[in-house]
Amino acid sequence: MAKKNKLLLNLFDMNCVGHNSHGLWKHPDNERRRYNDLGYWTDLAQLLEKGKFDALFLADVIGVYDVYKDTRDISVKNAVQVPANDPSLIVPVMAHATKHLGFAVTVSTSYEHPFALSRRMSTLDHLTKGRIAWNIVTSYLPNAARNFGLDEMIKHDDRYEIAEEFLEVCYKLWEGSWEEGAVVFDQLNDMYADPSKVHEIGHKGKHFQVAGPHLCEPSPQRTPVIYQAGSSVRGRTFAAKHAECVFVGGQTPEALRFYVEDIRSQAKAYGRNPENILMFKGFSAIVAETSAEARDKFHDYEQHRSSEAALAQYCGSSGYDLSKLDPDQIFEYMSTEGNQTRAAQYTQFTKKRTVREVKESIGKFGGGWMQVGTPIEIVDEIERWVEEAGIDGLNFAQVVTPGTVRDFIELVVPELQNRGLVKEEYEEGTYRQKLFGSDTSLIPNAHPAASYRQIAESAVRR
């Protein structure tokens, strides 16, 4: 399975009012208030397909951000990813309205059960005709732990231990429970499926016991395309073993390249082809025909930015309550059970800053990788980052919906196409086939999931 060479484009979004553009929900051009309307999502999906986007990447959280100032009020008031609906339930209607667009759905391994999750993903893979991906997260919000009956968060590395076993169960169900040819649809002999080719998995582990068999017949991809979002030491090892697509952090191309090269190097140790791991970086752009017009847009959006909301999200995800730190002290990395990538954002591959400076940076509109300018200026920067960081794709985030991505599609995508950086037409096939140009929809033989295809011969793998 060979990696595609064209730059891949995802829209990074969430089934909520306020995703990452904090305060912009109140901008008059923003339609995010329609997130409860199926028409909002089908319109967006069709727009993305018009722009030859590869996928819609749907983030999710299962708790509120309540670390900053020890309150959830800031998050609730400013719609900081609350209210938020289930991302998986909007996928089938968008798939019905499109033909090629993939859908990456975020689900946590810390607060789900693998038997239920595997069934949900197989169902989505069937309904989308093989266009589904699973973005694996281990969750980082203290409130999420309390929502699922725990007094405190599961330790960071323990969450990855659970995730390892969670995936083992899913792989057994997806790859090993139903043999190829198990579904015979033999009307003459009154047999829909051959019982001798459907197997229990008999999993008995530290965290899960699952008898099987899988309730779903094999879907087009069996195992969905595996995404993983995390740049911690443990997260990178997990990605090197399991992920086909990785959402990597990094404030500079140099920092990004470190993560990219580390993950690909570790992948070799697992016997995987490192080129079969695609690296995505978060990105946003405010574009117009002239630089002056783009800057005017930026300043307009800037007036609606909520710094308090941005701090609420950062503190909730990192585990740091910046309101309790001396503003003039140097901001140093501190051990946390939160999101390690966010925790290290202002302490690794960057100059030392005071807490005050970090808070100002978090609250500033246009943080992260945001480009403002003409199509040519923006594509020049995209080319530079791709070349210097070694990334394969962009997770494009909107400022206002759908105006930001519509502008990108109408102005930037043609320039990307003119330079041969992105495709002009879709290829046929499942999401995995589109990503890697493979003749098969199945996960590669070198991936750990593939080892469970032999479950029929060994009866049970423990």
Structural features, described:
- With 462 residues, the chain is an alpha/beta fold.
- The protein has a single domain, classed as Alpha-Beta Barrel (TIM Barrel).
- The chain contains 16 helices and 13 strands.
- An 8-stranded parallel beta barrel has the order 1-2-3-4-9-10-11-13, surrounded by 6 helices. A two-stranded antiparallel sheet has the order 5-6. It has a two-stranded antiparallel sheet with strand order 7-8.
- The longest helix has 21 residues, at 156-176.
- The protein starts with 7 loop residues before the first strand and ends with a helix.
Layout: helices, strands, pairs:
Elements: E1 8-14, H1 38-50, E2 55-59, H2 73-77, H3 91-96, E3 102-108, H4 114-127, E4 132-137, H5 142-147, H6 156-176, E5 183-186, E6 191-193, E7 203-204, E8 209-210, E9 225-229, H7 233-242, E10 245-248, H8 253-269, E11 278-287, H9 291-302, H10 307-318, H11 340-343, H12 355-363, E12 370-373, H13 375-389, E13 393-397, H14 403-418, H15 431-436, H16 455-458
Parallel strand pairs: 1-2, 1-13, 2-3, 3-4, 4-9, 9-10, 10-11, 11-12, 11-13
Antiparallel strand pairs: 5-6, 7-8
Helix pairs in contact: 4-6, 7-8, 8-13, 10-12, 13-14
